[in-house]
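User: Some background: our group keeps a shared notebook of sequences we're curious about, and every so often someone picks one and asks for a predicted structure to add to the entry. Today it's my turn. The entry only has the sequence so far, pasted here. Could you supply the structure so I can complete it?
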Amino acid sequence: MFELKTNAEKYSSDIADEIRLFTAFESDISVELSVSDFLRCRVEFDGEVREYSQKAPEGDELTVKRLTKRFLKLSVYSALSSRYGDLPWGSLTGVRPTKLAYEWLKRNEGSGLQKYLTETFFVSEKKARTLSEIISAQSPYIRDLENSVNLYVHVPFCDGRCSYCSFPSADINKNAALIDDYVSCLCTEIRSVKEIIAAEGRDILSIYVGGGTPSALSEEHIAKILRAIDVGGREFTFEAGRADSITKSKLRVIKEGGANRICINPQTLNDATLAAIGRRHTAEQFYKAYDEAQNAGFIINTDIIAGLTGETFDDFRRTADGIYALHPHNVTVHTLSRKRGSELQEQQLHCADIEKMSEYAYDAFTKTYRPYYLYRQKNMLGNLENIGFSLAGYECVNNITVMEELVPVYACGAGSISKKITNGVITRHASPKDVRLYIEEFGERFRRKSEFFRG
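Assistant: Of course. Here's the predicted structure to add to the notebook entry:
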């Protein structure tokens, strides 16, 4: 914990985010800003004072504010890194470093990105190089998107909750009486949203059924949802994250329903860790589910997490090596984060080997795969990232376009969030997270959502 004193009140939350990058810092800190022909920042902590200055920015009010904020954050980063050392992503605190990269490339005709990142934000050379690789991998998939939308369908049920999870979901066993009504409302919403998309002359680029754990539903309910979607010839991902929810017959229903991609996410191949984080399956069950999905002809994604509580570097290495040996089409390597709404929210996370784990995963998977999307979250171990790797030609368009916020998202179901993009400005519409409320107020809530889409 720390106490921040600053006269730059409108930037206080940004300054605090910068300080939080340095998890070892626990002290009082003063950040004072003065503005004239120069911006001057005075940073004081533990009796030490560091001062920084640069010429005051020019331009419109928004530009001046943005560059002043950047100066303050860089000043704080410089002061704290002189004590605690540099961080892999330097002073960057945003969720999407790629967004910053795209903005730079647009202004500078595609040149100088890595130098810009390392010299302006103190990003490490390896992370800057990774961003360049991701931009290159994404380039074939971000053209001709003007009339495209993504369709997202949320199934907010799961058989138990993992300790790190913050997604809106309800215990499927405790809410069994609501499932019929929920699926009925969801299917009505899906069909209505498809009508809106068609009326607007838009094309569905990709479909993603997520949760929760959609595969926790019965075959009958899964089939009903997929019949409502009924959009052929598109990238279509079905989330079947927990191996204990997967059966051959469910996989057949999912495949026949049009899905061509599936996510099976072990998170770790260590049985003791699986039990500790609340996943009710073993590594052996994951391998069985993986084989069955492979035999069914799906493009497969698997997720693993670096820094799970209690895991050593050797534990993580065995998981990464085990997944690499399977040769799935996509692998996403997450760094454990203390997310709001998760069981870990109030815990202080620590993993001495987190950078070593991240480096190992990157070096191991890039022997065969290439990184193709990346995002970051607050309160991540080691100020690191989540990064998706793909075999060439199997990149997930949904992951790219959602993470880069390139196309609108028409989202259905409790807890889902729809996004519109108008002249580069993103607006959102959230459905209620509570399943019962979603059902009871379905008509009025969907009327408002329709107005949002058509507005």
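Suggested note for the entry: The chain has 15 helices and 17 strands. The chain has two domains: 1-85, 142-412.
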